[in-house]
Write a structure and sequence with these properties.
Helix content is about 40%, strand content about 25%. The protein has about 210 residues and is an alpha/beta fold. It has 2 domains: about 1-35; about 55-205, Glutaredoxin (3-Layer(aba) Sandwich), CATH 3.40.30.10. A hairpin with a 6-residue loop joins strand 6 and strand 7 (about 165). The longest helix is centred in the N-terminal third of the chain and has 30 residues, at about 1-30. The chain is globular, with a radius of gyration of 26 Å. The model is unreliable at about 1-40 (pLDDT under 50). Keywords: Antioxidant, Membrane, Oxidoreductase, Peroxidase, Redox-active center, Transmembrane, Transmembrane helix. GO terms for molecular function: thioredoxin peroxidase activity. It holds the Pfam family Redoxin.
Length: about 210
Amino acid sequence: FFLVFEIFLVSFFFLFGFFGLFLVCSFPFFKKKHNFNMTTETSKIKVGDKIPEHTFTYLKGDDMTPITTAELFDNKKVVLFGLPGAFTPTCSAHHLPGFIQDFEKFQEFKVDTIICISVNDAFVMKSWAAQQKAGDKVLLLPDGDASFTKKMGLEMDTAGFGGVRCQRFLSHVDNGKLTHFAIEEPKKFEVSSSESSLAFLGKDAKL
């Protein structure tokens, strides 16, 4: 009987001691609040930075056509904006249409190209461009795997909406270098509009 009791005591203290050690070691982890759904943020690009090197592939006519950031931005004055998704309400009703409607105003500021990017495939972007009558006024480029968006540090996880998407933003690029950069707060549409872009160009022209 005593032998059995001693074995029980040794086993009890061994297990209790192991459990206690586990709690002590784990305490800092549990004390800190963890968000296991949080995606890792990359460093956002900033004014003065060069646009990251990238090759987009878009539908030009019926052909999948590659185009590099060097072709798009070198020795050019470009307005680049991004949005969460083609055919979505704010993007279709306000964001893209504003730049299409104000195309002539941008030409007055000698803007060479207006580019819109979104995490959609080439077919979706072509259909959206046709529906919005973008023509040659705004170049819609697909970032299907969000690789360019991630290089810019602008990815966001929209979960059920559509996975990784691009934050709504506006930038001005002069010879491949950012001269203006603004990111919208969630569910806002204020600093990335065509009006905001033209206002910046107007201020810049007065300097």
